[in-house]
Design a protein that fits this description.
By secondary structure, the protein is an alpha+beta fold. It has four helices and three strands; from the N terminus they run E-E-H-H-H-E-H. It is globular and about 40 Å long.
Amino acid sequence: MSQVDCPKHGKQDETFVCQHIVQGLREGRPYGFFYPASSDEKRPNAWCTVCNELVAEENGEWTDQILEVAQVKLLCALCYDRAKEMNLEGGRKWWEFWKR
C-alpha cells in the first residue's frame, strides 16, 4: 500500500474519499460515509450522502459528472478512520473531543 505524509499523523497508508468527507472533517460536520459493502479492503474508497444519491440515480455508475462533483481527495489512514467514526458513530461530540 502506498503511503502519504500527513501533517497531523505523519507517514500513514493513503486512502481516498470524496471532497465532502474532507470538508466534513474540516467543519466538524458529518456528511455521510459510504463505501462498498463487498470490499475486503480495510479502508475502501468512501463517499458522502450526496455522492451516494448521485450514483444511485445512475444505477450505481460513477459517471464523469459525478466524479467532478466528488473531486476525490487523498487522506491518511488515521484521518479516514476519524472521518468514518465522526460520520457513523460520534457526530459533533466526537469532533469536539478530537479538536482538543
